[in-house]
Amino acid sequence: MTQPNLLSASEAVARMRAGQLSVEDLALSCFARIDARDAVVKGWVALDRDRVLVQARELDRLGPRGPLHGLPIAVKDVIQTQDLPTRHNSPLYQDSFPAIDAGCVRTLRAAGALIFGKTDTTEFAATVRGGRSRNPHDSARTPGGSSSGSAAVVADCQVPIGLGTQTGGSTIRPASFCGVYALKATWGAINREGLKMLSPTLDTLGLYARSVADLDLLADVFDLEDRVSPKAVALAGARVAACRSPVWPKAEAATRAAFDTGIALLRRAGADVVDLDLPPLFDTLPDHHTAVMHGEARATFLSEDRFDHARLHDDFRAMVENRRRISKAALLEAYDVAAQGRMAFDAIAADFDAVLTPSAVGEAPVGEGTGDASFNSMWTLLHVPVVNLPGFVGPAGMPVGLSLVAGRYRDRHLLGMAKIIGPLFEAQGATHAR
């Protein structure tokens, strides 16, 4: 029998509902994997084994409580939890214990989920340095960031589901680097109450899993709803746009090869794949993303700066002090151009079943930095849903993902497309492995 920690979320829930697996046995299997691997992956920053096992036994006693009954979930440590500390990987919050759940965590608990522990992140999920977690495929490499620990522990089969956040590329890039599925939902579609936000205009909850079915299960729990009822689409005849995006020159060989292979696989399966060159309006969006992120961060971190300037990382002091010299006029321009871009992209995307685009510059880099978010920032600013699809492997043997994108509030449609395209890409990875 498959070890319980290796099961996808959907498989584990099905077995628990059928009486073939207890919540306690699933939790113990996850802890065994953590004991074997945490010294290498270093994904967790807060675990309370006794609390988890008490709650697991209580869930077994009560019987199925909801669609996520007994499912272990990792929570990024910028998301508040009532029974675990929320430290933001910052010396300013080492004694922080808010004793209240973020809205998303409350929703998961109500669905029967077992909140397992808190996962590593960079400081305030706002720097490219500071996280301790490592890529489960090669500990010399980063898992990406800032949702570093959540992506790593899901990829390493320590838990089936993880929560992240994204301001630039903090959900999708780690998913690509670690080789797991991820959804950055439409901005505002999932409650952000209780998340430490860097930028109110950008920050979005992210979801990690090892199958699209698991993401679909979470989409049900969070009541994600499309603006138009999604229709079933077959891969043969599906219309897919291949969008290299304005930052394509940054793509490394691994991403270029994965993108070309992905297009070839789709065409071989009967999809109609056409190149999409975005209008000039979109060329400025990466710079406008920077203006919004740093412009809003001035207000976000002002309180920390005034409270304890000496212990605040220089990256945050730079934002508060506006060393980039981002004027309010530039910030307003960024807001206005982004609004135009959202309407324009919704119209463009409406002509396709999905837009295929890179998830990251390339393979996970060696070292402490979390990698380049260039291929993610535009989509975050546009507020559109994005799904990372794993399956490709770069020259160093590391995972490389590709993203599917759609217009705003087409999350369920996008997951439907991921269900039919994901297995195609995963088979490519399996072939490479053989």
TrEMBL record:
UniProt domain Amidase: residue ranges: 27-415
GO molecular function: catalytic activity
Secretion signal span: none
InterPro entries found in the cross-reference section: Amidase, Amidase_dom, AS_sf
Region (Disordered): 128-151
Family annotation (PANTHER family): GLUTAMYL-TRNA(GLN) AMIDOTRANSFERASE SUBUNIT A (PTHR11895:SF151), TRANSAMIDASE (PTHR11895)
Annotated protein name in UniProt: Amidase
